[in-house]
Amino acid sequence: MDLEHKFCRFDTGVTLSEGARIEGYASLFGACDQGGDVVAAGAYAASLKRLAAEGRAVKMLWQHDPAQPIGTWDEVHEDARGLHVTGRLLDTVARGREAAALIAAGAIDGLSIGYRTLRATKDGTGRRLLTELELWEVSLVTFPMLPSARVAAKGTRPDEAAMDELAQTLERARRDLARG
């Protein structure tokens, strides 16, 4: 599975209201990220249409952990600026309550999307223009990924040993975060 992640800081418009409602942009069109990727307007349209037709929804996760859903995205849509999300943290889930407290305190300031690239082109500068993405989830995150964890260039498949090493590093980081 070639799941990728993109990160957008909350200061791009994410807000917390009524204790558990969050809203903001999970992705911005036309902005080059640190990996040299630019998401094109309309890149999520087919994926969002497919999800709706199948009666499924984009998942809200804690730190990209599929075992830790923390709420629901009530609305996920593209507008002129990017991928706008509106949702609710579940106060009946311990991590949902923790996430709301951390956002309110300013300790968590990021959104990150989990997706698979379906169509992309490269320009002469090495940038990748992402034109069709399969959106899986939008996570609340502290960091988009460990800054020192480098396995392969974006868009290439890392070797198995590097993947194992990265998985172990991420698992240690997840355990450290869980311990507080």
Can you give a write-up of this model?
- By secondary structure, this protein is an alpha+beta fold.
- It has 2 domains: 4-145, no CATH class; 149-180.
- Helix content is 23%, strand content 41%.
- Strands 1, 2, 3, 4, 5, 6, 7, 8 and 9 form a 9-stranded mixed β-sheet that branches.
- The relative contact order is 0.21.
- This is Phage prohead protease, HK97 family protein.
- GO terms for molecular function: peptidase activity.
- It comes from Salipiger bermudensis (strain DSM 26914 / JCM 13377 / KCTC 12554 / HTCC2601) (Pelagibaca bermudensis).
Short recap of the structure:
The protein has three helices and nine strands.
User: Pairing-aware structural class of the strands and helices?
Assistant: alpha+beta
Task: Give the SSE order as H and E letters.
Answer: EEEEHEEEHEEH
Count of discrete alpha- or pi-helical segments spanning 4 or more residues: 3
Q: Give me the Rg, rounded.
A: 16 Å
Mean pLDDT: 76
InterPro entries: Peptidase_S78_dom (IPR054613), Prohead_protease (IPR006433)
Domain Prohead serine protease: 18-157
GO biological process, one term: proteolysis
Protein name: Phage prohead protease, HK97 family protein
